[in-house]
Specification:
This protein is mainly α and 110 residues long. It contains five helices and no strands.
């Protein structure tokens, strides 16, 4: 298996996301820490999705659209977090799902 630059970048982002997810769910007294890790998870999910969508050839229109549609759960998670005033478990899981979906699509489906 040839490890290209994008695959290595994807794996580094995935490792960062795993660490972020672990710290996002560890109970802490400080809500600011939860918001910081939630924001970092959102940024990583958008980055994974952007890499996934832009690394495909331009004639793979269906796969590109499916890649960008992976951001919908993350957007719903952000809306839930803003409505509640702080990230809750459902919002965190939706953001996590977006990153996992983007990574799975990049590594296996497309």
């Amino acid at each position: 298996m040839n490890l290209g630059a994008l695959l290595i970048l994807e794996l580094v982002i995935l490792f960062s996301f795993i660490i972020t997810s672990i710290f996002m769910f560890i109970p802490k007294k400080n809500d600011t820490v939860h918001k910081i890790f939630f924001s970092l998870a959102i940024a990583l999910s958008v980055l994974v999705t952007a890499i996934n969508a832009t690394s495909l050839p331009s004639d793979f229109v269906t796969q590109i659209i499916l890649s960008w549609l992976g951001l919908i759960p993350s957007a719903i998670g952000v809306i839930i977090a803003v409505a509640k005033g702080k990230p809750n478990t459902v919002a965190k899981l939706l953001v996590m799902f977006t990153s996992v979906y983007g990574a799975v699509c990049y590594l296996f489906l497309f």
